[in-house]
């Protein structure tokens, strides 16, 4: 888990995202117990209510489930659900804006794919070197 917190994002969101990251990486496996609210609070030096808010967010999403008197556990299918969620967020936050900007600049799909693969950079570098020789 990340020992530091970002000042620009709510702490409870970061707690939830850090738990999600650990589930995606396989450090918290399905059926395994996650650290308690008090353990998160002590680790991050935050109020236990804030840690609980982050954990409860994951409970509401079906990522974690409570065993009364025992603690919180990773739900079955949580990793797949999180990867699906993160892919959608990646598409919404990065791919869509990139496609909109590419459209404004009249960059076609093939050119965009080429750029992503790094081929465009190599071609541009080669063209610059050729221009310098003339």
What labels describe this entry?
single chain, 134 residues, mainly alpha, two-stranded antiparallel ribbon, 65% helix, Tscrpt_reg_HTH_GntR
Q: Could you please describe the fold and organization of this structure?
A:
With 134 residues, the protein is mainly alpha-helical. The chain is built from six helices and two strands. It has helices at 11-25, 37-44, 48-60, 78-104, 109-117, 119-133; strands at 64-67, 71-74. Strands 1-2 form a two-stranded antiparallel ribbon. A hairpin with a 3-residue loop joins strand 1 (64-67) and strand 2 (71-74). Helix 1 packs across helix 3 (48-60) and helix 2 packs across helix 3 (48-60). The longest helix is centred in the C-terminal third of the chain and has 27 residues, at 78-104. It is elongated and about 70 Å long. The mean pLDDT is 89.
Strand and helix map with partners:
Blueprint: H1 11-25, H2 37-44, H3 48-60, E1 64-67, E2 71-74, H4 78-104, H5 109-117, H6 119-133
Antiparallel strand pairs: 1-2
Helix pairs in contact: 1-3, 2-3
Domain HTH gntR-type: 9-77
GO molecular function, one term: DNA binding
Protein name: DNA-binding transcriptional regulator YhcF (GntR family)
């Amino acid at each position: 888990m990340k020992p530091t917190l970002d000042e620009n994002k709510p702490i409870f969101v970061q707690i939830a995202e850090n738990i999600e990251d650990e589930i995606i990486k396989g450090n918290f496996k399905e059926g395994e117990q996650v650290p308690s609210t008090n353990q998160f609070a002590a680790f991050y030096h935050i109020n236990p209510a804030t840690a609980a808010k982050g954990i409860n967010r994951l409970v509401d999403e079906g990522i974690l489930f409570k065993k009364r008197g025992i603690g919180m556990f990773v739900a079955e299918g949580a990793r797949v659900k999180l990867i699906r969620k993160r892919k959608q967020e990646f598409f919404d936050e990065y791919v869509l804006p990139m496609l909109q900007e590419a459209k404004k600049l009249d960059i076609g799909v093939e050119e965009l794919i080429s750029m992503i693969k790094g081929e465009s950079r190599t071609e541009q570098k080669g063209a610059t070197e050729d221009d310098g020789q003339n």
